[in-house]
Amino acid sequence: MDGLDRLVHAIAPTGSVELQCRFAGDWSLEHPAARTNHLPYHVILGGHAELEMDGKRVALQKGDVLLFPYGDAHILRSAPDDAGHRSPAGRETRKQNGRVTLVERTGDGELLDMLCGEFVLSGATDALWTGLPKVLHLRTGRSDALPGLIQLLRDEAAEPKPGGGAVVQMITGAMFALILRGMTEGGHLQLGILGLLTQPGMAHVVEAVLKDPAHAWTLQNLADVAHTSRASFARHFAETAGVTPMDWVNGVRLAVAAQSLRAGKLSAGRAAEIAGYASEAAFARAFKARYGNSPAAYGRMHSTG
Asked: Which residue in 100, 147, 289, 300 is a FRET match for 220, CA 20 to 30 A apart?
């Protein structure tokens, strides 16, 4: 596994597709803030639209993918025609179409065709999913793998075939990884943990910590992995990620422990061991400070076992 592999594996996303929107005329779609660890996404299959967020508007076109890392509220609306006008849209209709709800608004002008769904990140991800912009906007091309995968998702969601739910989950999981790959390879992400993955030395650090969070990491041996001085490493890491290296390492350890507690019935002692804490009491104090509950209480509240 490389750093991106390990990051995606650690946050364990599951995806769904919920709506297919076909809008013409003058329309607007308000998306409220999502729940914690729920990441809405939109895929423009055809036509044009506009995204409005924090008072700014961004033009969207066929092949665009939007992902909202923290589930922030946003508005999608029809794009103006050449004269800057929009024709009125007709009333909205909804019907079930395979695994998605087909939402249609009739009207004059260009038709927008869009898939909407969400990714859910498993477990406590605050140390793993940090420093990102409010929206990731990826513009795909014909040579990219993502458009073909999106077409497969569209076809699979349109008809309730046997095993379709499992197929949709696998497709959306691959979509998630491809979106992050496209953003990092395109140089669009400069900050946060994903920003570190674009820098070879720092990427090796992220990969090493995610591979073995229980290791006795120090600022010096992290700098050694990055092949740089301790002072330079600490400064550059903090500037990019927004946290100090050791704060991030401790956050990863606790996130791994939290994910383990959610996934099964583990004792606090075993969770402390997984997180690399020699003292169960120190682990319990750190865990409660970060997540508001003792490891045992957290496990009882969230365990899927």
From this structure: 289
Domain that holds residue 141: 3-189
Structure tokens that stand for 214 in this block? 């229980």
**Looking at 75-84, 144-153, 228-237, 239-248, which range is the least confident one?**
75-84
User: What are the tokens at 239?
Assistant: 């500037």
Q: Which residues contact 33 (CB under 8 A, 6 or more apart)?
A: 71, 72, 73
Cα 41 to Cα 140: distance, rounded to the nearest angstrom:
15
Alpha helices in 54-163 (DSSP H): 146-157
Q: How far is CA 284 from CA 40, 124, 251, 295, in A?
A: 33, 16, 14, 6
- Round to whole Å and give the CA distance between 216 and 248: 14
Contact 55, 46 (CB under 8 A): no
Structure tokens at 69: 């890392």
Contact 194, 180 (CB under 8 A): yes
At 20 the pLDDT is 93
- Pair (162, 208) in one structural domain: no
Cα separations in angstroms, 204 against 197, 220, 287: 8, 14, 27
- Angle at CA 173, nearest 5°, toward 171 and 176? 110
Domain check: are 152 and 118 in the same one? Answer: yes
- CATH number, domain at 80? 2.60.120.810
pTM over 0.90: no
Number of domains in the chain: 2
CA distance 87 to 82: 12
As a whole number of angstroms, the distance between CA 217 and CA 235 comes to 17
Residues 18, 163: one domain?
A: yes
